[in-house]
Amino acid sequence: MNILILGSGGREHALAWAIRQNPKCDRLFVAPGNAGMEPLARLADLDILSGPAVIGFCEENAIDLVVIGPEAPLAAGVADELRAAGILAFGPSRAAAMLEASKSFTKEVCDACGAPTAAWARFDAAEPARAYIRAQGAPIVVKADGLAAGKGVTVAMTEAEAIAAVDDAFGGAFGEAGAEVVIEEFMAGEEASFFVLCDGKDCLPIGTAQDHKRAFDGDTGPNTGGMGAYSPAPVLTQAIQDQVMEQIVRPTVAEMARRGTPFQGVLYAGLMIEHGRARLVEYNVRFGDPECQVLMMRLGAQALDLILACAEGRLGDMAVSWAQDHALTVVLAAKGYPGAYEKGSAIRGLDALPEDSFRMVFHAGTARRDGQIVATGGRVLAATGRGATLAEAHARAYALVDAIDWPEGFCRRDIGWRAL
Ligand code: AMP
Ligand code: GLY
Q1: What percent of the chain shows pLDDT beyond 70?
Q2: Minimum-distance ligand to the CA of 212?
Q3: Which of 50, 213, 287, 399 has the most beta carbons within 10 angstroms of its beta carbon?
């Protein structure tokens, strides 16, 4: 079959790498893609937020399946438009993507289905929000309701910090996303991510992960999109995974179906685990980046069978074939990220790397210029290792990092510290 992946990050490179290995995949396209994917797929220059543009490309190239990587095309309704045109798509409808696009929508769904999460309230004006913060006290969490590119959340340790966050949001710091604010109870504990394929009615867990959001070693510095991740997450024991399926994921999927907006795609549950019990922090409606890199490294070629079954509504017949393995990925970012950084610096040493099913460097922000790979983004590469133990995966990932010659980049040296 012919497959089109939408997106250009490390997540999409990892999806392309896994899907390409499956003999069902005849031709593979990625739009817009990046330089790292060139050996695996044809890159297509296409406006991935435009349903008509994606549908036109699918018709010209006899595409059988579209795998949607990032949230923006989902929130724009590209999956709906594809399905309306009779093209198989992996990813939720615009209505179901609200589970990521609106924090208050998710909280309402949790309340309706009894899923455990932090107590919350919603505000559309600053004064009642300030009063609520004074009444509740700190620590407390302030969130812009809409999509704010991961920047709309303040975990406030003091009331003053929380009130400043409210004033920022209503002052327009997050644009439309901050026109409404959700204020939540602070949850203590350890965070982990749980990934579940859902076809609207059946659900199949496909792995757990933990990531490192802070820019620098020791989990210090500014928040980023993720500087590294590993899978599995030891804190998500089988008992806790069972609790999450029973109390959070299945009730959510049933509630979405009851509302007439069934969820199809990957549901990425951000969880807080305390005293052996998980509560929901948030949902994303897509794979995480860089969590996808470690999941794909572990799933390999079967990822396509699972994604296809999900898109076709056949998950009830599927099972994951698990290896007793671990994967770990280290993100190399441009110096300055997540703030301002230079683009265009050359990255050397990539061609000589040994790459196989135990070691892969996934590209996120790269392009090929005059035969050379150059950095074009903030997060640029994800050096990923797999092994029988987390320590082995860690050693393989850092061996890749150490073989890459890119003076303008940096990475954390302590990815996986909590589990190692
Ligand atoms: P979100 O975008 O909702 O995932 O929030 C970003 C990060 O803020 C999460 O990954 C948590 O680290 C933290 N966070 C969000 N909500 C809470 C909460 N209610 N209690 C504690 N930490 C939270
Ligand atoms: N790594 C976090 C995310 O993809 O949202």
Answers
A1: 99
A2: 2
A3: 287
